[in-house]
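wait is this the right file?? whatever heres the structure
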C-alpha cells in the first residue's frame, strides 16, 4: 500500500498516524447501549461505522480485540421494568437479545467481549476506593460518592471546555452535597426499592461514567488504543471517563478517540429523549439490512447524516446495480488488458480507507470498479472483495427461482434460436421482460435470467 493509516483523533483534533501500543495488536473499546428499549438508527450509525473500522484494521493485519459494553442498570431501566411489570434482568436480557438480532441483520460482527455493568460492580467499587484514597473523590453530604473535577488539572482536554464555563450536560445528575456543581457521581446512595450493592459507603449502585472505565481497563488494559462512541458522548461521558481513569491509574486512558456524527431528522439529532427516532426494526419493515447499512455509509463517519426515505430509496437502487453485476458477470479475475486499471482502482480504494477510514470515498471507487467490471466483463473478484471489506454484499440472492411459465418461454426461445429464428427469439425475450419482470442475458456460459 502506498500510504500509512491515519486517523482523526478527537483528543488532538488532528489526523495522526496510527501506531498501536503493542505491535500488531489493537485494543478497541466502544460504548454500548443502555438496554431499556430497541436500538434506533443513531445507534446503528455508530455500530456500522466502528464495524467498518474494525474490519479494515483486521484487513491491515492487526489482531483486534473489540469490546462493547451493555449498561444493564440505570434509572431508565428501573423505570421501564416497573412500567412493564418485569424484573430488571428480564427486561435487559430481552433487549440484549434484540440488540444482537438487529446487529446481525446489519452484518455487524460480534464483539469479542460484551461486558455487562452489573457484572463489574466490584471492579467499580475498587476503582472508586482508589480515587478516594488518592484525593480525587469524596463522600458527599447526601451519601453519594463524587469525583472532584478540580483535582484533575487536565479536565476538559477532550471536549476543549473550560471548567469555569461548564454547565451540566446530558445525564449529569445534579445532587445535593457536591463541593462543585460539576463534580460527577461515582456511586449513588441507594433509594428505597431500587437495586443496590454493598460498598464501603453503604448500599448503592454505580454512576454511569465509572462503568466504562472499570470495564475497559479490566477487560483490555489500563491504556487502550482506541475508545469510540457517538459525538454526544464526548461531554460529559468520555471527558469523565478520562478524568477518573487517569487519576486512578496515573496512565493515559485511551490513545485515540474516535467519534461518529449524528443522524438527524430535519436538522435535529435523532434521539429517544426528543422522541424523533426510528428504531432499526421500524426501518427494516420496508428495507433490507444491507440497504440500511449502505445508507448509513453515505457520509463519512464523522459527518452528520440526514435521515430521509428518499436516501434509503437511493441506497436500495444503488445496491441493486451492484447486485446485478454480482449475479451477471462470471469472470472473477481482471482480463489482461484492464488489469492495470483494476490495480489503480484498488490503490485508490485503499488510499481512501487509509485516510481516516473514508468509506464514503471508498464507495465512490466501488462505483468505478463496478463500471469497469461491466465494461470489461471481468474482474468480479475485485468488486466482491472491496465491497465485502466494507461489510457489503451480504444480502445478494444469486439464485433466481424461475416460474414454470417463464421456463416454458425460455425453452421456446432456445428452440427459436436453434432454428435461427432470431426475430421470434427476440420477441420472447421482450415478452419475458415486459410480462414477467426478468431480463435475459446471453453469455458465453449460456443464457442467464436476472430479476429486473
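ok assuming it is, sequence goes like this
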Amino acid at each position: 500500500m502506498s500510504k500509512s493509516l491515519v486517523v482523526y483523533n478527537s483528543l488532538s483534533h488532528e489526523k495522526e498516524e496510527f501506531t498501536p501500543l503493542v505491535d500488531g495488536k489493537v485494543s478497541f473499546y466502544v460504548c454500548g447501549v443502555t438496554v431499556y428499549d430497541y436500538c434506533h438508527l443513531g445507534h446503528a450509525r455508530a455500530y456500522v461505522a466502528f464495524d467498518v473500522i474494525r474490519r479494515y484494521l483486521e484487513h491491515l493485519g492487526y489482531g483486534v480485540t473489540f469490546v462493547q459494553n451493555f449498561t444493564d442498570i440505570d434509572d431508565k431501566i428501573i423505570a421501564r421494568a416497573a412500567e412493564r411489570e418485569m424484573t430488571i434482568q428480564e427486561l435487559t436480557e430481552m433487549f440484549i437479545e434484540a440488540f444482537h438480532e438487529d446487529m446481525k441483520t446489519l452484518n455487524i460482527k460480534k464483539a469479542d467481549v460484551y461486558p455487562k455493568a452489573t457484572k463489574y460492580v466490584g471492579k467499580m467499587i475498587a476503582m472508586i476506593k482508589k480515587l478516594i484514597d488518592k484525593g480525587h473523590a469524596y463522600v458527599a453530604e447526601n451519601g453519594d460518592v463524587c469525583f472532584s473535577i478540580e483535582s484533575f488539572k487536565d479536565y476538559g482536554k477532550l471536549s476543549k471546555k473550560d471548567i469555569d464555563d461548564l454547565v451540566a450536560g446530558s445525564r449529569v445528575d445534579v445532587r445535593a452535597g457536591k463541593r462543585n456543581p460539576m463534580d460527577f457521581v461515582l456511586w449513588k446512595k441507594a433509594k428505597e426499592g431500587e437495586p443496590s450493592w454493598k460498598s464501603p459507603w453503604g448500599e448503592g449502585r454505580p454512576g454511569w461514567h465509572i462503568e466504562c472505565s472499570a470495564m475497559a481497563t479490566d477487560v483490555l488494559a489500563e491504556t487502550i488504543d482506541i475508545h469510540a462512541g457517538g459525538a454526544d458522548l464526548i461531554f460529559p461521558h468520555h471527558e469523565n471517563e478520562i478524568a477518573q481513569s487517569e487519576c486512578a491509574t496515573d496512565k493515559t486512558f485511551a490513545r485515540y478517540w474516535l467519534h461518529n456524527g449524528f443522524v438527524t431528522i430535519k436538522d435535529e439529532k435523532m434521539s429517544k429523549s426528543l422522541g424523533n427516532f426510528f428504531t432499526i426494526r421500524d426501518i427494516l419493515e420496508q428495507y433490507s439490512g444491507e440497504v440500511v447499512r449502505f445508507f448509513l455509509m453515505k457520509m463519512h463517519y464523522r459527518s452528520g447524516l440526514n435521515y430521509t426515505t428518499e436516501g434509503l430509496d437511493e441506497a436500495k437502487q444503488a445496491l441493486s446495480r451492484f447486485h446485478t453485476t454480482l449475479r451477471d458477470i462470471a469472470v472473477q479475475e481482471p482480463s489482461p488488458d484492464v488489469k492495470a486499471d483494476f490495480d489503480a482502482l484498488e490503490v485508490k480504494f485503499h488510499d481512501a480507507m487509509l485516510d481516516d477510514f473514508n468509506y464514503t470515498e471508498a464507495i465512490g471507487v466501488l462505483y468505478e470498479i463496478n463500471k469497469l467490471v461491466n465494461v470489461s466483463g471481468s474482474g468480479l473478484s475485485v468488486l466482491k472483495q472491496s465491497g465485502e471489506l466494507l461489510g457489503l454484499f451480504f444480502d445478494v440472492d444469486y439464485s433466481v427461482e424461475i416460474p414454470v411459465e417463464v421456463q416454458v418461454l425460455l425453452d421456446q426461445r432456445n428452440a427459436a434460436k436453434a432454428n435461427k429464428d432470431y426475430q421470434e427469439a427476440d420477441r420472447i425475450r421482450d415478452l419475458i421482460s415486459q410480462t414477467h419482470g426478468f431480463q435475459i442475458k446471453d453469455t458465453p456460459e449460456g443464457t442467464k435470467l436476472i430479476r429486473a
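The radius of gyration is 27 Å. so i think its the right one actually
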